[in-house]
C-alpha cells in the first residue's frame, strides 16, 4: 500500500509542479493581481506554436495529476480489495 501512495504522490507532485509553472506563465497577468494561476487565458493573435503547446500541456498536466493520483490512491487499492473478496468468496 505504501508503494501505491508514493507513486500517486510522485505523480501529483510532479504534474502539479509542471502545471503551476505553465499556469504561472500563461494565467498570471501580473504579480500584483489577486487572480494568479486562475486568470482566464489571453494568448491573442500573436500566439506561437509553443504557446499553444504550453496551454495544451497545462491542461494535460492538470488532468494527469488528478487522474493519476486517484488511480494509485483509490483505483488500484479498490481493485485489489475486490479481487481478494472475490477469491475469498470462491473458496
Short description:
By secondary structure, the protein is mainly α. The protein is built from 2 helices and no strands. The protein has helices spanning 2-26, 49-90.
Write the layout of secondary structure elements.
Elements: H1 2-26, H2 49-90
Helix pairs in contact: 1-2
Can you walk me through this structure?
The protein is elongated. The chain contains two helices and no strands. The chain is mainly α and 91 residues long.
What would the keywords be for this entry?
mainly alpha; 2 helices; 91 residues
What value does the average pLDDT take? 89
N-to-C order of helices and strands: HH
Backbone shape: elongated
Total helical segments:
2
Q: Can you give the helix content as a percent range?
A: over 70%
Q: Which secondary-structure class do the elements indicate?
A: mainly alpha
Rg, nearest Å: 19 Å
Share of β-strand residues: under 5%
- Poorly predicted parts: none
Total E-strand runs: 0
The termini sit apart by 25 Å
